[in-house]
Design goal:
alpha/beta, 13 strands, globular, 8 helices, 9-stranded mixed beta sheet, two-stranded antiparallel ribbon
Amino acid sequence: MKGIILAGGTGSRLMPLTKITNKHLLPIYDKPMIYYPLETMRNAGVADVMIVSGRGHAGHFLETLGSGYEFGLRLSYMIQEHPGGIAQAIGLCKDFVKTDNCFVILGDNIFEDSLKMDIDEFDFGAKIFLKKVPHPERFGVVQIDGANGKIVSIEEKPKKPKSNLAQTGAYIFDARVWEIIKKLTPSDRGEYEVTHINNSYMRAGYLKYRILNGYWSDAGTFDSMLAAGEWVRKKCKRGRS
């Protein structure tokens, strides 16, 4: 299994902080944001990880993370020349992953749940991780058939969500993903969406999922960064008590 952490984008929702550096290097309590997905990768047993970032502050990642030795990881780096969406960024990693399976995490996502068992048991197709949220319209929204427990739709940021289940920023894909990405077209937002990848697996009957119980955050806004930092602070205090 190869790992991919996506740390591109312009970080426009966090301006003017992102004039200084990439948003994924901003602090969540006592560590840079990207440390959290790196730790999720390591704890899941995925050691070979590629970080995809944009051009603006790419050198900051190398200065901060180096080879990945201190995390027990082997890090590689890729530049996404122009922001084109999550699916496009994943596609840049084809030569790194080759025919292996890949575990993808968005660089602003913080997970309390361990995903190691999901990695260890993964065989083929794709797997996504869901979380019940109060404002699902901010995310990719997943609808599950109550009769058979299968996913029947995934909609990207719908105005009228069909459920409160959000698609979090962690995905496991087999090598079919490269053919799927090759056939994608841009969405109305002008981006290549990861939701389109997952819908393709769903239509083929190869999409699995797990609903997470623990804390999850995408720390891409001022409010979510603040809330994530407060959660980490309380967790650290509990750990020292």
